[in-house]
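Table S7 (text form). Paired inputs.
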Amino acid sequence: MNTKFNFLQLDTRTRELMKEEIKLAEQTNNLYHSSRFNDAGKAAWSGFLNTAAAQYNEHWLAYQLEIAGAMKDFESKEKPKGGYTIAHVPHTAAETFADGQFNRIYVSAICRRAIEEGKNEVVVYRAKTRSDSRPESNALEGTKKDASSLLKMVQDTKSSFNCDVLKPNSGLSVKY
């Protein structure tokens, strides 16, 4: 069952900031493109993400990726004992990617809003119900993060991979 995120502060101001974050990411070459995108996905990604931020949500974004056929059918994978093999791209790839990237832009916007409103911290919460939530994700619920530090981390594609709030399929997001 595909459940949607419950983004508690996804309103007009947050959407404006999300669009600004996407523009900034494009200007600084920090708009992440999936290695699983085919040519159609690479071409359409920015437009889909901008439209989702302006009017829709991560669920709509995943659907657009799916109907556009944006993901490769196969990918090469490294074998544990060396060498490579060819494997099917998981059928959940578009959803996982859309969830993660929409949430990444949302988290950036919420951090900016918190800072704008004089709040130094954001609070981690479970935004998407997970039947198999990880103990490390559960432990983060209710914790506070410095808004400025988190903003810098999620704005940088490379360091966002190390962000505990943005782990794939965690279902976590932030509020203030």
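Next pair, protein 2 of 2.
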Amino acid sequence: MLMMDEGKYKLNYVYAEDFGTGYFKYGPITLRDKPYMVQSRGLFLRDLPESIKLLVPREVLERGVVVGDEIPKYLSSIRDAIRNLRYPLKDGIIRREDEDSWKITKELARYGFSQFYSDFSRRSDFRGFFLVVALSALAPDYMRDRMIEIHKELDNEFGGKLLQAVTIIDQPFAVAIAEKAVTCTVIEAGHGNIQLVPISYGPIREGIVALNRGGSEANAVTREVLKDSGYGDLAKDEYVIEIVKRTAGLVSKNLDEAVKKAKENPDRFSIRIKINPLVEVELKDTAWMRFLIGEVVFNPRHELFTSYIQQGRLVIEDATVGDMVFYGEMDLAEALITSIRRVPVEIQDKIMSTIILSGGAFNWSVPPGLEDVAVNSVDKVRIMVSERLPDLANRLSISMVKDPQFSVWKGAIIYGYALPGNVKWNERTKEGWYYLH
């Protein structure tokens, strides 16, 4: 059912979900610039002692899985907690037959809606959200179909009053929309993978290049840095790893020169990180390793990573999902050049004229006093391309989105507002509004 004043209605009731490998971002258009965010994970309530079961709400026990802020309540009470804690998306994809992951995905969506529905449902004009689901550009068609089914089930559980219509958008296309870029290349670097997607009024699928690394590999390197710095106990804690990565990680202008300077003058590069009032981490003699944390996102082929890989401390390898190859060690400059070469020659100039970086794995800063050796992600990509093809680098306009973690969600909200209500779902193209009623 379309509203009499569709634009006015959507201005209040468009809702977007960004299913990332590391984090799930969600919320209505009324949040404006910043969605709510929780980790993309779920804890199955298996092996619960009978004494704990008595304290768990019946509906939670029946669903058998908790997500979001509810997870810490149960972690210490569950035997084999690590085995029961699952991350549903790998490289932005959920396997067709992986019912546990689909159950977590449904619970994440429910968790998000439950924080807004009671308030919105009291409004006299509310007739259900226009929902936009943002998925990886590499997501197969069955994922899009299953997402619609999951949300149909949730709508039924809310008495048919939760959703009016659902549509799906590729995450890199959402970034382009948020940046008002019609023709460009989006490089989306998330927790699980990096997607390079050329766009000309929509994704050019022949030009997509996928890399099998992202923020999770930076986490893996951070774990090894902690071990080598004498913090083997803390290296087991993902919370600590995330803080150290974000605080200590650096991206170099030139890795060899940066490491050389850091080893010659460790005091200049040392850092003390206060995790909480009781836990503190200091990197001094191993401060040169700070550059490895950022470098692995851009170029894991460097020889400094060889020993980690040979010892099995770091796994970076090609992976095949369906007919798509996720390249493990391909550096970012080569990936960008490969992507551009795959699109028709007549539009290559336009595609390469605007390069947009997005995603949390590109969110690196340059500490004061280290400007001679460290750079941000935009400058790193420009330097890497210059080394490979100087003439191409001079023609690139590279920019970073304002909010790397939230640009997909914002673009999805804009798309949901702009997509006319009379554009119905097309089974072949998987575009348009799928009306539930």
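DSSP finds 20 helices and 18 strands in the chain.
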